[in-house]
Protein 1
Amino acid sequence: MNVFKLYMFLIPIFSAAFANAQESVKTVVTKRAISITTIHPDSTDYADLEGIGEAIADSKIVMLGEQDHGDAPAFLAKTRIIKYLHETKGFNILAFESDFFGLNTGWDKLVKQKDSISKFIRQNVYPVWTECPACSNLFYDYIPSSFLGSNPLHITGFDNQMIMTYSIKNLRIRLDSLLRALNLQVITRKDYVSKILPAIDSIWLYSVPGTGDTSFFLRCNNYLDEIKTQVAEKLDADDFWILVLNNLLQQNAEYKLLWDRKKRMQNIRDYQMAQNLRWLSTIKYPGEKIIVWAANMHIAKYQDNSQNGKNNLTTMGKYLTKDSSFLEKTYVLAFTSYGGIAGRLGTKHYSIKKTGPDSFEAWINSDYKYAFVDFKRIKIVPGQFLLKAFAHNTFFKRNWATVFDGVFFIRDMYPCL
């Protein structure tokens, strides 16, 4: 047999072997889904979570998502997973989709006692979580109690929206002190105290459309750009204050687009959140393992430039994992639900629509109340499938196995009460 005939003979054999090594998503979900016995945070028998641990392997960053910011069972499950990762896998940093400045400067300066920790968390992590009873065990018991032993669980934040109590009270004061300590030219301007500082201090007030005139955002951008240029001449590019100024610039730009009702605002926020996480991982906590608490939409490795670029959506997870080093060391775990009721605190609750039979949620064994499916370690035939990834009642086909590394399934959802 000549070389050409041998080559043509072997092609179908190799192709068949390759195909057999891969599995369809449906097969993976129906045959490989792992039943999770409980989501109760007090359950410390972690045998049912070992599958998650094996999937995470040696990842340095684990992202835990949620479909909506009112999903009580997801919060309970995430709390239990956080305890498991902290106690058995060496994860000691918990990063929230909340105030970057407050949860860094404020947390670092905080005296770590139970009452002070609980109060600080309540004031500086978004209330969609701190006011939800399903998060109480994590915020007001587990985290504070961890500082009584030798293995504390530190918190941090990565959201550029620096609008919580510590930032409102301290950001302007500490920024002013920095600029004066660096003896920058901007502090000699006649309008520095009367206009520049008040403008920076007021960005968060303009997050509501219609609260002022749009020229505010242009003035504030010019002030911040001038300050950043002068600060950059004195401080290292990785300095915390350079990042704070970047956050202020992006927050200002985000609120401008929000004010104008432009959808591109999400890209601005997600881009900066990715930069903040990058800094936390490489500069502030280079030797630590980090757990990320955020929405599915933010953690997804997702980019959509369809419809001639009209959608123009790029998520935090995509911005971050464009860097191959972060792609390799990050595990992205989404949460999804089959049915039930949803809704955030203070908002109207709504019924969750069930997907049809050809969907991830429908493929889960009907006996499983909770389940985990890993995509990262399994060779999956590329293909699109339905998953309620970005909201309870928003589902469409996508190759979700490349967007998320795994999915945590909850059969019956209910809101925080």
Protein 2
Amino acid sequence: MDSKLPQTMAAVLTTGHGGYDMLQYRTDVPRPGPKAGEVLIRVGAAAVNNTDINTRIGWYSKSVGGATSDGGAENADDASWSGEPLKFPLIQGADVCGRIVAVGEGVSPDRIGERVIVPTMQPAPGGEKFDVFTLGSECNGGFAQFVTMRESQAYLVNSTLSDVELASFPCAYSTAENLLHRADVQAAETVFITGASGGVGSAAVQLARRCGAVVIAQVGAEKASALLALGASKTVDRNADLLEELGAESVDVVVDVVGGGQWPSLLSILRRGGRYAVSGAIAGPIVSLDLRTLYLKDLTFLGCTAQHPDVFPNLVSYIERGEIRPLVAKTFPLKDIVAAQQLFQTKNHVGKIVLVPPQD
């Protein structure tokens, strides 16, 4: 271990499920050290995501049935990705970009100095195919100056982009790439994307366009031009009647991160044999399903959390070849995490809000 590394660090500790008062910025948190098979990353930047807020407020609890804006369950024991009680205090932060500054036993010291990004959804050690280990939930994440990581989950990235720009990719873009991968989106197919101005939605627009699909983006009218610039062929207002705007059986794939009251109409616009892929439900997780629609139209439903092994390596290759571009709405110093999450909750931005920890 490099003796020049500080013994303490700045970090945001989440002390329990609840409001912004659960976030404590401190500068005396013990710095972690890499165990066997791990690397120590000095965090250059970490983006804000829905999952950071949903985890803090307890929205993942099965006792919660409303939109993320309605709040969560502060005293729930099942309010995590895994459904198991979280261990507090916890350092959240589902996105990490930084440099390896130390390695544990069994890891080549040649990796020191590499700039890396880290998957949010990682295969659980020793787990089955769909067992995941979530950064900033089941282990400490990026809202700190340093974080340890299994070597296999620290992906070297060669890019001229800044740490802030690279930090905008891992969570949102890997989620979007996984949705498209699981739905087997093909060139010339029509893909309808909900919540298209958010991190996952705007990433899905770029990635679907990259593979040659025709993209229809659902977004507020004030953001329509930004989505067209990203590659959408058409935009539809989030309050529009989808059947009236698009017609029945007009799209091949629906990529959904919204859910809520509009959900039945998403199945109406799917063609027979169409695919519905979901990885979020910010407008509400409880929806009404007519099973006859599912089986009479031969639809396929795909819940998408655990990521295919090809997803993150593919994402790194897209970044390195310049095939996708970062969308950064605003940056904040790590100590201003509350202001950053408050801005995030307004949903008035396109792209990512990124936190930068102290670099000394």
Protein 3
Amino acid sequence: MTKIENYIDGKFLPPENNLYLDNFDPSTASVYSQIPDSNANDVEKAIHVAEKAFPAWANARPEFRARILFRISELIDQNLEMLAKAESIDQGKPISLARSVDIPRASSNFYFFASGAMQFSSESHNVPGGAVNYTLRQPIGIVGCISPWNLPLYLFTWKIAPALAAGNCVIA
């Protein structure tokens, strides 16, 4: 049976407590893999790695970030069948739906926001009395992301791709 591990600092690592949860295929109610039952120490490891990586990513040129996001989109497209099968098993949904909706939309999210990485946007607002308020979009630091159960890959990419494009976060 496949054991999925945490991906931290470019390496697959077992959870510190070495505990796993059964991962069920909802269409058959059978266990098809095990996933880490990670704890706060595992999260702290990921945060520490992200804190080290964040300055370089936040200060990377938009063109560099865009190339990375375009490449992720390409890799999703190249692995459409494998990802559709995984999404189908994980969600208990027809593979045709994962193949035609979920995975292509995940790719589209990275592609769209890769293009957006190349655009600079700020806003200014006149305030009565002669003042001006500026809105600058700047990296904020380490973030956590929880992906919903119903469209995990597609909705995760909808959250993470814009943050990565803007240099607002890193994936540890």
